[in-house]
Amino acid sequence: MLYFYLFIAGGFGVLARFCSVRWINGVLGSSFPYGTFFVNVVGSLLFGFLSWYIVHRWSNIANVETIRVAVLTGLLGGYTTFSAFSMEMLQLMQHGQVLKAFVYMLLSVIVCVFACFVGIVLAKQLV
Fold first, then answer.
1. Which residues are CB-contacts of 1 (< 8 A; sequence separation ≥ 6)?
2. φ and ψ of 29, to 5 deg
3. What's the whole-model pTM score?
4. Structural domain span for residue 101
5. What is the pLDDT of residue 49?
6. Cβ burial, residue 118 (10 Å; 0-12/13-18/19+)
7. What is the pLDDT of residues 42-92, one digit of tens each?
8. How many domains, in total, are found in the chain?
9. Helices 34-57 & 98-125, crossing angle to 10 degrees?
10. What is the arithmetic mean of pLDDT over 3-32?
11. CA proximity to 122, closest of 40, 35, 114
12. How far is the C-alpha of 104 from the C-alpha of 99, rounded, in Å?
């Protein structure tokens, strides 16, 4: 059953990513990979928050490990995307936009790690 939940949650994550990226790029344009940056930051924030919250707040729930795997690996794994980040980095570099690629890389790593940290801090505040 775990694989089924993982499969379903991953599908929802992919759908959420697709819709989020299209929406953000529609609003902000496609001169910078705003959509992928957005989903990776939001996904990192949610991953930090939920990884701590599920373990510490829902520890008494039966099948909490199934919920944790489905939400973190399935839903958020489908929502965030390192492969798209890597391809967009290469495309920026191939088009001679090395500075933009470097800024994107630095922002993505720093902001996503910070967002994950903020998610953990927020989750701790709720306990």
1. 66
2. 95, 180
3. 0.82
4. 2-125
5. 93
6. middle
7. 999 999 999 888 888 887 888 888 998 999 999 999 999 887 888 899 999
8. 1
9. 20
10. 96
11. 114
12. 9
Amino acid at site 102: F
What pLDDT does 57 receive?
Answer: 82
Residue 119: predicted pLDDT? 95
- If you search the block for the tokens 């929406």, which residue do you land on? 23
For the chain, the DSSP string reads: -HHHHHHHHHHHHHHHHHHHHHHHHHHH-SSS-HHHHHHHHHHHHHHHHHHHHHHHHSTTSTTHHHHHIIIIIIIIHHH--HHHHHHHHHHHHHTT-HHHHHHHHHHHHHHHHHHHHHHHHHHHHT-
How many of the other CB atoms lie within 10 Å of CB of 71? 21
How far apart are alpha carbons 97 and 116 in whole angstroms? Answer: 28
Here the tokens at position 88 are 């967009």
Total residues belonging to the chain: 127
